[in-house]
Write a structure and sequence with these properties.
This protein has about 350 residues and is of the alpha/beta class. It has helices spanning about 5-10, 15-30, 35-50, 100-105, 110-120, 125-135, 215-220, 235-245, 270-280, 295-305, 310-320, 325-335; strands spanning about 60-65, 70-75, 80-85, 150-155, 190-195, 200-205, 230-235, 250-255.
């Protein structure tokens, strides 16, 4: 009998509780070795030979040995030194052995505090790691949207979770908010969602009581190809936007009808389905602060993109290692982020 068969037979004889404990122990042991992170990093490094300079983007660089098993480089153009992890979310991280476990917890949709407890790290570290990872996902936004593109907005309450200087009374529940008040204060965030019929998704958060054509133009700047057909409800701002962009075909229908009575190909079923999935995705986080919402929208879109891949953790590592500007994006983001007291 093969050793694998013997192990399977012995495993099947264990009580279910012991099986769960053993599987969890083996999983943690596997993750602590960080093999996926090491193997993927090595693959990327060997494929591109030399990493371009993250400071000036020059490819005229050369290797300058290793420091703590990390490849070092020097740029011929700007003369700066950098490493294989410079610019990536892994830059200056001392607990890389826990990142594989952290990605698994993220994949399961765990909140920040629960991950901190699971991996025995501080809540601040858990928060920083999450947003370092999410800062690497901007590169996966679709470059352009073509053919038939369904577009609608999902309205979410403006959330100032974590703010120490609230000027309004806190809400008792997530849905306890007023959309249009007499005051000029914005109380909602519009998630403008565009979905190609092929499934490609593009989501942008806009703080606005009611979308204007200028805000729509800003969201779609350079994204809609000339052959695109934009399908929306009869929101007047979409009509005004399409009028200013005559190369884009525009089809409209009543929002409450969902499908046009005269032409069944004109509908918003895909975008409505995305909104339903997005609400479900955001639900475990018990309210996402609006200033961090775009990161979560990018997370949803990327996770949905790789969901059929059998090696999702590896895909996350690839995203992390190829994002040479993620650390810079995170540094800008952190200037406005909340310092978590634990």
């Amino acid at each position: 009998m093969e050793p694998t068969e013997q192990i399977q037979m012995l495993f099947s004889e264990l009580p279910s509780s012991s099986q769960s404990e053993l599987l969890e122990s083996l999983l943690q042991d596997h993750e602590l070795r960080g093999e996926i992170l090491q193997e993927t990093s090595a693959d990327i490094s060997s494929q591109r030979k030399n990493k371009p300079c993250p400071h000036c983007r020059s490819k005229k660089v050369y290797k300058r040995g290793k420091k703590r098993d990390v490849q070092m480089y020097q740029c011929n153009e700007c003369k700066k030194w950098y490493s294989e992890t410079s610019g990536t979310p892994l830059y200056d991280i001392k607990l890389k052995s826990k990142w594989q476990s952290y990605l698994r917890c993220m994949e399961q949709g765990m909140p920040i505090k629960k991950i901190a407890k699971e991996l025995h790290i501080s809540i601040q570290t858990s928060f920083d790691w999450r947003h370092k990872i999410l800062s690497s996902l901007e590169q996966f936004e679709p470059k352009s949207l073509s053919d038939e593109v369904e577009c609608d907005e999902l309205e979410l309450p403006l959330n100032n979770k974590g703010s120490k200087t609230l000027e309004i009374e806190p809400r008792k529940r997530g849905s306890d908010f007023k959309r249009n008040t007499e005051k000029k204060d914005i109380t909602v965030v519009q998630v403008v969602t565009a979905v190609e019929r092929t499934g490609n998704k593009y989501l942008k958060a806009v703080e606005s009581k009611r979308l204007s054509k200028e805000e729509i133009a800003s969201v779609f700047e350079g994204k809609l190809s000339e052959n695109a057909t934009l399908i929306t409800d009869k929101h007047p701002s979409y009509r005004a936007f399409a009028k200013d962009n005559p190369s884009i075909k525009h089809k409209r229908l009543l929002a409450k009808e969902h499908v046009d009575k005269n032409d069944k190909t004109i509908h918003l079923q895909k975008v409505n389905n995305v909104h339903s999935q997005l609400r479900k995705f955001l639900s475990p986080f018990n309210g996402v602060s609006s200033k961090y919402l775009q990161n979560y929208l990018n997370w949803y879109a990327y996770a949905d993109k790789i969901k059929t891949n059998k090696e999702t953790i590896k895909q996350w590592v690839v995203a992390i290692m190829l994002s040479d500007q993620a650390y810079h994006i995170f540094a800008l983001f952190k200037q406005n982020a909340v310092i978590i007291r634990t």
